[in-house]
User: Which sequence fits this backbone?
């Protein structure tokens, strides 16, 4: 520790602290503009200039490290004049259109102008006048208001590692832009916008909807993927207006992805259902909650009485909270008395590695998953890792992904070729073959990390092989949804009771449906019709004696139900999610859309069936701590669960054999903007990715005479379907991808993970 | 930018489509795995094609694993790089101290009068490009211009005009 | 000149940038033909004329310069040679034995050298820059041999410290001390960088050294690399210097082949790999952190210091950047000793400094003088004073970032500290002399235009501040200056100086501040009287002949390019304003300042 004196206040700080950090610790405010704590020091704006006693030159507080006994003056008339001049210079070209600027009230330039006491500009104003740029679907860009602090460019470079924007030109001609002023296409994560100090980059989803000072900010956890990002929900009068970030909060350091940042309008979607519905003679009619619960209870009681407890099942979606999942299995196991609690989550792989492990790894393998699409914020961590000097990042995946720029090795090809390469790599670990060098470096690494897809049997097999061959490897199974991990932890599987206690009777969801032993099903938020594995079960589900579905939206499976109960979304309830790391985090109810939560639904239904389950969130959590040993001493605000195993199961080597006969190989692609189900209810996300598209490389596209955005006919076995074309570089010849969890695609992939199809141009 | 120059830019769009980019790959291959390759690669690609197009930049980016936007940021920072084809004869008018004092501004005006191009512009027949440069280190004979690699000193508007016309009349 | 007497006829034609531009190729061809016609065996050599101890080389204004060597006689130098003059020279001088006096160099040519002290430039022009053997024959690579054989790295640093050598790139930081910082930084991999990104208009000493004696720079770098502990090095050369780049490439290759670069240099375990990086045209890359960014392949935007390059430089490794001229000083310091070197110059500024003299001075060119000579000596003794009998008005010292000094400060000694005290600086070594036909507001505007255009745009004071100053200067030169503009300029300039990120912004206001300091009355004349005393701001000049001042000589009539002036012998000239294009030819040529 070193001691420094700032404006007379002595403070002890770490030796490498900057003056700014020391000042913060001392409680001294130094104004900044281009500085951002998560970015490398830049020192461009000069607003934070301070005097260091004994040094004739003024120093920027944000870049200058302290030295022992350093004495710093941050406030005097000279410094105030300099700061005033800097702000004054900015105001020459900055359009003073604050009343019509969405940033008004939340603008660093406004605040600094006030802070430095600038009341009059001595120079002739020359406001810039360039049209707004709306080429980015989520971000409005006004380069006139830009102060060239470079935070957007730097965060896109240092944090996101996409480098979608850059400083262009030099001197007074400088602006922030793209190569040859192309439309601004990127991953739409909005990190740039989140650090823009002025109204140059604005949130188009939020634009002109409210004023910053009206909004209440509530910390919560994102409800989309399993990254478990902390978010700030900005809301007023039961309406969510904006999702923002806090760099000091959670595992994501304030970084979000397009879904998390811009997908929130689904909360306010007009498609949201508010009233329960009961289907009578094929037609839904509205009912009250009480009536609906009563109806469900009666039906369940009746069927249980007739066919026994095991004729009833519960299917749980990974969207629900731990508390809801816990009650769901309790409902099945204790209220109904059956082990029939299902989910589509894997039970073979449990979390091991954390974000920190990923970022600090010296050798990381991404095994057959497009992680920057499926788990974007984990993807940022991998990209930052790959960017570091002297790290090795190797990716096995059919097409080139956005990890390419930072990857040391990138192995692409037809899915079967990718598996061959993985196989060769494993042979390398065993001591021979073409991948021996890489295998040796992975084995010899200080912190080898394996990132993989835990939903694929073959991938699990390879992950298990690697785990066996490299004893210090840390595995990171990339679960998909916000609580994919939590619902398994809570025992929403016939195989385990909460906390991985093996069960005896182990029913299989498909089997019990197909053999007719299951007569009634309560689905909490899940939609089997969009799941490639179960998308064929629509007929059976429709013919069940009883089907009840809870969902924020009237989903495809909800349409088949006898009772549909609309429930709340993540911003509308309390509880916890467990992310892919096994980290438990609390969300906070911010708005009330007048619908009940799954938790309330389960409590009401159980009560009606004669068992009183707790319905207060605290009571449920107390019960979890008591009944789930895994969770009993975990901090529900960020604690990590210690798991009993990493990989467990009878993993078998099953060679890939694509189904079908066509010329093109299809593999399932991942999408950053969608997971097929409820993100499609976000009109903003859907505007960018409205329907599933066939990704194809430019050579194949030109052979088929199709271009980006054209339609193409895909022929697979007896099915002929029309899809939009997305031309992408880095897709191997003869290979295309298609997302598999859309209603237009799930049934195709039901036949197999990999398909062979024919493609022809769609005319007309 | 003069109308001629804008018109010429439009035409370039079509020309660019047909350029064979294999030389980009060859140049990048020489720098594979080497640090600090960006500027030498940009220089050599420009030397080969005469300028840097959007397609070339994208190809360089793919080869070097650098974002095309970053590359564009780099190339627009340095005066040496061009994103449009250049004239057969590049007229560099020195605007250094000595030349300025001795009236190099007038020489630029003569270029404008003769070929209708201002600083940084190329004539529509792709014959001349005007470039005002800072000192080319021949102050003793100010004002000075260079046409490609040939230097002309002690210019007056009159003898400069004669030189320009001589180039204009040169056979292709 | 009589440096050496030879057996064969030899003609040395200056073929540097200026030599070629002045018709050197044609002159060479003419000599070849003339000798052939005369049936004489002769060697016609093309020499890069930039700098040579015994030739012009530095005096490019007089190109094409030709040295004629006749067996048994002293060499003779001819100035301003054209192809037309060649047959006469060959006939009268070579064949007839009579020097063509009217074309041969006169006293002023030799005066140009008399007041100089050429150490750094000593071998430039003497050695063949493309021949490592020639360099070795002139004592080259002896210094590095001595260093490797007799000295520890610490001793080398000590010697350089003792010599008092300060960075020639402009800042004047003590070289030995700078090396110590980098040497003491932890790390195995350290970089040594030679800054050859000479961008100041009018300054070309670094180019001359590199083009004239590239091995000298390489040897200097070897000495530094050994002293600091660098294994890798770069020469960052301005791309606008194609000849320099060719020469460096050849020199690097030769030095490597001879074992002066690479592993096990001269049989020791000293290892140094040197690479050439071509700049891409950005003045700001002369700033060392911007230069580093540029080598890394990024936009050449300066970075905040600390961390200094000595701690965290190229690719995050400790790095040391020195300028060409600094490196070129090193071999002689090692060979002649620190004491010898420290005996040249002043107490705090040792050795010599190369200047590029230009503007309104009789002998423009490259000169090397000992530190401490006065500005007056530089302009009047070396440069021969102001041409056309005009009055000296000001001198801009240190390139566009330097300052403009008036006549009252002509006795300022040229050393780092005195120049700073006067508001100027050593800078690049550019010296631009101005006479009474120059307007100081316009001069300030001109220099600021340059620095403003070269601003990288990163920091606000430099990006917007210099532009704002320029706008104010522009309105003053157009006669639209306002009451308070001078104070506004001063205030803004002061703020920019102390708040800019790098040296470019910190010095850009210097020409404005010094012209206001020493020529405030000219600013006031523009603002209050809408008058330009230097008659350069054409919007404020009437272009009228002052009858009482006109001596009816008719020069203006002769120089007017558009025939706007009527004159008859014995009569006052008259300017027809409808024809006048305000080119100022009449003003700068009128010997009597009679046009206003």
Assistant:
């Amino acid at each position: 520790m070193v001691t420094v004196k700032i404006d007379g206040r002595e403070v002890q700080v770490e030796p490498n602290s900057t003056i700014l950090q020391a000042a913060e610790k001392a409680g001294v405010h130094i104004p900044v503009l281009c500085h951002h704590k998560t970015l490398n020091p830049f020192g461009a704006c000069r607003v934070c200039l301070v005097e260091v006693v004994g040094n004739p030159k003024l120093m920027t507080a944000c870049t200058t490290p302290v030295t022992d006994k350093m004495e710093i003056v941050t406030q005097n008339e000279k410094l105030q004049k300099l700061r005033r001049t800097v702000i004054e210079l900015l105001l020459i070209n900055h359009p003073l259109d604050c009343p019509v600027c969405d940033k008004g009230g939340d603008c660093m330039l406004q605040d600094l102008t006030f802070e430095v006491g600038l009341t009059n500009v001595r120079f002739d104003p020359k406001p810039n006048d360039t049209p707004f740029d709306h080429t980015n679907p989520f971000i409005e860009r006004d380069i006139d208001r830009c102060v060239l602090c470079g935070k957007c460019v730097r965060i896109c470079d240092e944090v996101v590692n996409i480098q979608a924007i850059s400083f262009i030109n030099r001197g007074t001609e400088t602006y922030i832009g793209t190569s040859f002023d192309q439309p601004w296409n990127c991953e739409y994560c909005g990190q740039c916008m989140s650090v823009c100090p002025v109204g140059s980059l604005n949130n188009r989803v939020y634009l002109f909807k409210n004023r910053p000072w009206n909004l209440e900010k509530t910390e919560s956890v994102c409800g989309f993927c399993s990254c478990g990002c902390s978010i700030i929900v900005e809301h007023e009068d039961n309406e969510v207006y904006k999702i923002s970030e806090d760099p000091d909060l959670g595992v994501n350091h304030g970084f979000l992805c397009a879904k998390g940042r811009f997908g929130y309008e689904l909360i306010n979607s007009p498609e949201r259902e508010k009233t329960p519905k009961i289907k009578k003679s094929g037609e839904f009619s509205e009912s009250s909650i009480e009536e609906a619960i009563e109806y469900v209870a009666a039906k369940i009681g009746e069927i249980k009485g007739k066919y026994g407890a095991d004729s009833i099942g519960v299917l749980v979606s990974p969207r629900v909270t731990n508390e809801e999942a816990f009650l769901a299995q309790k409902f099945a196991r204790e209220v109904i008395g059956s082990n029939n609690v299902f989910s589509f989550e894997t039970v073979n792989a449990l979390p091991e590695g954390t974000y920190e492990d990923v970022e600090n790894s010296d050798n990381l393998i991404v095994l057959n998953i497009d992680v920057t699409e499926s788990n974007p914020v984990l993807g940022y961590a991998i990209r930052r890792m790959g960017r570091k000097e002297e790290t090795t990042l190797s990716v096995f995946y059919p097409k080139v992904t956005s990890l390419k720029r930072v990857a040391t090795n990138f192995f692409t090809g037809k899915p079967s070729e990718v598996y061959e390469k993985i196989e060769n790599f494993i042979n390398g670990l065993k001591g021979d073959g073409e991948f021996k060098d890489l295998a040796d470096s992975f084995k010899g690494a200080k912190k080898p990390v394996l990132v993989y897809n835990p939903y694929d049997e073959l991938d699990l097999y390879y992950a298990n092989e690697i785990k066996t061959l490299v004893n210090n490897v840390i595995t990171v199974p990339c679960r998909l949804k916000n609580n994919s991990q939590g619902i398994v932890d809570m025992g929403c599987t016939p195989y385990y009771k909460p906390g991985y206690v093996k069960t005896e009777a182990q029913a299989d969801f498909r089997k019990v449906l197909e053999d007719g032993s299951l007569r009634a099903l309560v689905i909490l938020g899940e939609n089997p019709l969009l799941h490639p594995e179960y998308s064929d079960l629509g007929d059976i589900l429709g013919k069940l004696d009883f089907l009840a579905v809870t969902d924020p939206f009237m989903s495809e499976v909800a349409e088949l139900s006898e009772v549909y109960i609309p429930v709340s979304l993540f911003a509308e309830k309390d509880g916890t999610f467990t992310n892919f790391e096994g980290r438990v985090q609390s969300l906070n109810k911010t708005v009330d859309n007048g619908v009940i939560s799954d938790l309330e639904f389960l409590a009401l239904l159980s009560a009606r069936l004669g068992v009183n389950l707790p319905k207060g969130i605290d009571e449920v959590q107390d019960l979890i701590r008591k009944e789930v040993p895994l969770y009993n001493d975990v901090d529900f605000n960020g604690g990590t669960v210690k798991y009993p195993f990493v990989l467990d199961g009878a993993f078998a080597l099953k060679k890939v054999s694509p189904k079908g006969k066509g010329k093109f190989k299809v593999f399932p692609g991942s999408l950053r903007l969608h997971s097929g189900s409820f993100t499609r209810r976000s009109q903003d996300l859907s505007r960018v990715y409205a329907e599933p598209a066939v990704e194809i490389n430019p050579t194949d596209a030109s052979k088929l005479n199709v271009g980006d955005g054209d339609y193409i006919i895909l022929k697979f076995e007896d099915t002929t379907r029309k899809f939009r074309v997305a031309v992408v570089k880095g897709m191997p010849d003869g290979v295309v991808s298609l997302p598999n969890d859309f209603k237009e695609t799930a049934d195709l992939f039901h036949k197999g993970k990999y398909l062979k199809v024919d493609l022809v141009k769609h005319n007309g | 930018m003069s109308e001629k120059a804008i018109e010429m830019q439009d035409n370039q769009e079509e020309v660019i489509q047909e350029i064979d980019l294999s030389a980009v790959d060859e140049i990048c291959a020489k720098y594979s795995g080497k640090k600090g390759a960006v500027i030498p690669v940009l220089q050599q690609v420009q030397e080969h094609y005469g300028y840097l197009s959007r397609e070339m930049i994208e190809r360089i980016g793919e080869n070097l694993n650098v974002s095309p936007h970053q590359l564009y940021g780099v190339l627009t920072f340095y005066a040496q790089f061009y994103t449009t084809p250049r004239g057969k004869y590049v007229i560099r008018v020195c605007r250094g101290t000595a030349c300025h004092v001795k009236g190099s501004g007038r020489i630029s005006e003569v270029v404008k009068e003769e070929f209708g191009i201002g600083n940084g512009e190329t004539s529509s027949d792709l014959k001349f490009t005007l470039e005002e440069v800072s000192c080319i280190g021949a102050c003793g004979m100010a004002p000075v211009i260079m046409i490609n690699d040939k230097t002309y000193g002690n210019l007056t508007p009159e003898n400069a005009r004669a030189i320009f016309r001589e180039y204009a009349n040169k056979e292709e | 000149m009589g440096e050496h007497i030879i057996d064969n006829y030899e003609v040395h034609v200056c073929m540097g940038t200026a030599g070629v531009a002045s018709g050197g190729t044609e002159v060479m061809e003419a000599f070849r033909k003339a000798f052939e016609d005369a049936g004489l065996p002769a060697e016609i050599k093309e020499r890069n004329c930039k700098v040579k101890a015994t030739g012009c080389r530095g005096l490019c204004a007089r190109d094409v310069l030709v040295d004629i060597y006749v067996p048994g006689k002293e060499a003779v130098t001819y100035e301003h040679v054209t192809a037309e003059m060649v047959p006469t020279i060959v006939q009268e001088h070579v064949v007839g034995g009579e020097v063509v006096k009217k074309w041969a160099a006169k006293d002023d040519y030799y005066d140009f050298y008399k007041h100089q002290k050429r150490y750094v430039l000593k071998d430039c022009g003497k050695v063949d820059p493309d021949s490592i053997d020639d360099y070795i024959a002139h004592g080259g690579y002896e210094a590095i041999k001595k260093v490797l054989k007799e000295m520890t790295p610490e001793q080398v640093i000590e010697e350089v410290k003792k010599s008092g050598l300060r960075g020639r790139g402009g800042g004047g930081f003590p070289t030995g001390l700078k090396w110590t910082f980098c040497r003491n930084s932890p790390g195995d991999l350290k970089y040594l960088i030679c800054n050859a990104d000479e961008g100041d208009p009018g300054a070309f000493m670094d180019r001359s050294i590199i083009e004239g004696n590239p091995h000298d720079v390489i040897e200097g770098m070897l000495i530094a690399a050994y002293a600091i502990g660098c294994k890798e090095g770069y020469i960052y050369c301005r791309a606008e210097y194609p000849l320099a780049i060719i020469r460096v490439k050849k020199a690097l290759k030769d030095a490597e082949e001879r074992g002066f670069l690479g592993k096990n240099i001269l049989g020791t375990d000293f290892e140094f790999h040197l690479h050439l990086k071509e700049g891409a045209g950005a003045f700001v890359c002369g700033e060392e952190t911007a230069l580093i960014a540029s080598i890394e392949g990024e936009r050449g935007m300066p970075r905040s210091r600390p961390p200094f390059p000595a701690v965290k430089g190229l690719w995050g490794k400790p790095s040391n950047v020195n300028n060409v001229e600094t490196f070129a000083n090193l071999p002689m310091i090692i060979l002649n000793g620190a004491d010898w070197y420290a005996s040249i110059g002043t107490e705090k500024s040792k050795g010599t400094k190369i200047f590029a003299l230009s503007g309104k001075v009789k002998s423009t060119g490259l000169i090397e003088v000992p530190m401490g000579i006065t500005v007056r000596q530089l302009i009047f003794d070396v440069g021969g004073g102001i041409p056309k009998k005009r009055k000296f008005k000001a001198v801009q010292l240190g390139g566009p970032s330097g300052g403009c000094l008036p006549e009252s400060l002509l006795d300022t000694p040229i050393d780092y500290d005195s120049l700073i005290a006067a508001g100027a600086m050593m800078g690049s070594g550019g010296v631009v002399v101005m006479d009474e036909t120059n307007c100081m507001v316009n001069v300030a505007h001109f220099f600021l235009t340059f620095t403003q255009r070269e601003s990288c745009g990163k920091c606000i004071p430099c990006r917007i501040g210099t532009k704002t100053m320029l706008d104010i200067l522009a309105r003053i030169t157009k006669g639209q200056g306002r009451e308070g503009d001078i104070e506004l300029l001063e205030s803004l300039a002061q703020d920019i100086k102390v708040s800019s990120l790098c040296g470019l912004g910190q010095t850009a206001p210097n020409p404005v501040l010094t012209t206001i300091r020493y020529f405030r009355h000219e600013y006031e004349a523009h603002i209050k009287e809408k008058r330009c005393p230097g008659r350069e701001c054409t919007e404020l000049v009437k272009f009228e002949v002052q009858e009482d001042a006109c001596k009816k000589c008719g020069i203006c009539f002769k120089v007017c390019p558009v025939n706007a002036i009527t004159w008859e012998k014995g009569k006052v000239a008259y300017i027809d304003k409808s024809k006048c294009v305000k080119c100022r030819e009449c003003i700068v040529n009128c010997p009597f300042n009679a046009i206003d």
Summary: Chain B has two domains: 3-77, 89-168. The interface with chain A takes residues 54, 57-58, 62, 65-73, 76-77, 83 of chain B (CB under 8 Å). Residues 89-168 of chain B form a domain with the Glutaredoxin fold (CATH 3.40.30.10). The beta strands of chain B are 89-94, 128-133, 145-147, 150-152.
